[in-house]
Records
---
Amino acid sequence: MAIEDIIVETPDVKTFRLIFQERKIRRHFSFKAGQFGKYSVFGEGESTFYLASSPTWEGYLECSVRRASKVAEAFHKLGVGDRIGFRGPYGNGFPLPELTGKNLILIGSGIGIVPLRSLIWNCLDFRESFGKITILYGAERVADLVYKRELREWESRRDINLIRTVDPGGEEPGWDGRVGFVPMIMREIDLLPEKSWVITCGPPVMIKFVIEGLISLGFSPERIITTLEMKIRCGLGKCGRCNIGKHYVCQDGPVFTYAQIGEFPNEF
Ligand SMILES: Cc1cc2nc3c(=O)[nH]c(=O)nc-3n(C[C@H](O)[C@H](O)[C@H](O)COP(=O)(O)OP(=O)(O)OC[C@H]3O[C@@H](n4cnc5c(N)ncnc54)[C@H](O)[C@@H]3O)c2cc1C
Ligand code: FES
């Protein structure tokens, strides 16, 4: 694939717009929000990133890469016109048909917004098919908020309720969002547990406290959807490092309901 555009999102996150070299693949490539790909920087190695764009956007795809590994570092050094390798899509993705007609609450933090961004734009392309859409997104500091331009756009829309927050101490002069950790801010929002589905993605510690909070607020485990990236290594069902009981997280996931996670053996 060739890099068509690069957006600097934060001091250590860049979004790459990629186009397939082969016209036929460009035209027929399809995926689901929440699926991931294996991206290789030639001579440096391969790494796993979510498909960050909406499946409804044709002709290209996007990934957002945090400079957190050798491959990501190499990715950041590439420029427009450079080539990368791509394999995918992999994983199950979000269950869009089941979410249709529901109130959606999307909760993310840091780079965890990436698969949610794909889902958000996918839902916005069929806005009338969903109920209320609430997005709670947090980062350590204002500078670390990914997709700032899109956050402003979502905030200005009347058909989305966007709440932005930064960790205490991460605010800066002029910050007009909230201050506080995502799981705490979540408790201040009217979430309508009996009518809503939650989709959450972020660091494991955030997910843990978000899920505990949701359960105590009355959400049923079937309505809490989360991603599990932690155990994934090869991402291809080959290395055997991601299995939990009979499940391979990289193939049966990375998207699971909390009810499914509750059925995993204790080793998890
Ligand atoms: C599903 C998924 C989606 C992700 N999406 C994003 C995203 O959108 N943006 C983002 O910035 N980051 C994303 N990440 C995180 C990213 O892939 C890296 O994990 C992160 O950059 C940190 O890299 P690392 O140094 O831990 O190495 P990683 O590349 O994650 O490797 C972790 C470990 O797995 C081993 N390993 C790697 N490949 C193989 C293999 N083929 N076989 C066996 N072992 C292997 C490595 O040796 C290393 O020990 C995602 C991760 C996953 C699993
Ligand atoms: S990550 Fe290697 S088998 Fe799932």
---
Amino acid sequence: MQGFALYPFDPPGDIAALRADLRSWLAVNQPQGDVVARANCWASFDADFSHALGAAGYVGMTLPKRYGGGDRHPLERYVVIEELLAAGAPVGAHWIADRQTGPLILRYGSEEQRQRYLPGIAKGELYACIGLSEPGAGSDLAGVRTTARETAEGWRINGQKIWTTGAHFSHIMLALVRTEEGSERNAGLSQLLIDLDTPGIAILPIIDMAGHHDFNEVFFDDVLVPHGALVGERGQGWKQVTAELGLERSGPERYLSSHALFVALIDAAGPEPAPAIATLIGELAAEMWTLRQLSMSTAAKLAAGEDPMVEASVVKELGNAFEQDMPRRVQAIVDCGWGDEDDLAKLLRALLIASPSFSLRGGTREVIRGIIARGLGLR
Ligand SMILES: Cc1cc2nc3c(=O)[nH]c(=O)nc-3n(C[C@H](O)[C@H](O)[C@H](O)COP(=O)(O)OP(=O)(O)OC[C@H]3O[C@@H](n4cnc5c(N)ncnc54)[C@H](O)[C@@H]3O)c2cc1C
């Protein structure tokens, strides 16, 4: 196979102690009660929790100290997010800012942008959303039509974004916009950091089929942002977004979204599970372990400064298949009614409704498979 190699996951420092410290912290600080918030927990908004997590040093871990970060190794951060997801912690408020906007600002942003935004991100107080998708540009991102024209006063933005997770509670949007008049496809695109309280921005909710308000439509009507809102190089938006997607696709969130259900299944099965349930638990554990090795290897490649697009896409594709299948496999085997009120039934209901979207967010299955096929020289 072309360009596909597994890397050893070798974080510095005492990882066992890091895990133990975080578990003790979670035992005291993780909100109890709402069991459904533990399913798909990286979509669960809880500003108090994010703030407390930031104060404890578990947000912005890889950012430099001079910007309020922890100067920790990316693989130490990996261990921390793995623990948070496995515990079903409500990390949705700061998730996007911590995972990709912060690192992208550090890599491509100006010094002014770093000083302005990174400390708030590291505190778990400044939230960001991703302005990529548009009605005519989802899988085909090169179809972006939202324009930003440079004027004497700054950039004037017109257009629309859609499916923007968390725009209604975010402070900033990192948007992909067309800055060069008459440009086509992936040329002429740039990234702008837009403060969402700028006049001319309208954020309208889209309610999903579970009845939740996670994503939005965002309209830009002659919105004026300063020249300094440009991130990185003008016209290099495509290259920068591709780097961002590598961070977005390979983390443990791509196979741990349904983890709370796995834990509830084990709890409900008790010490003497029926043979069919014991078999399912064993199968799920083995599959999850394999995905974990793949994801950790990809994280090691990213930490080494490489751009493992194929590996990240494989993690996303196989991870999504696993986390989407889990609720259906559990449903097929446990005796659980739609109206039951125990934890297993509540989690199962929530995930049967939410899981179809897992293979859409971050790039659809067909498109991800296309990237893998191209990367492996198969098309
Ligand atoms: C829960 C959730 C959260 C999201 N959050 C965000 C967000 O925060 N910010 C953001 O910008 N976007 C977000 N999205 C949008 C998501 O990234 C897009 O939905 C996704 O990229 C698909 O785009 P689309 O919906 O326009 O579908 P389309 O691109 O219209 O695709 C429709 C179908 O056609 C298939 N298809 C399209 N092109 C090809 C091709 N070349 N080859 C084969 N098949 C193809 C697709 O796989 C899909 O099945 C989110 C989506 C979900 C579900």
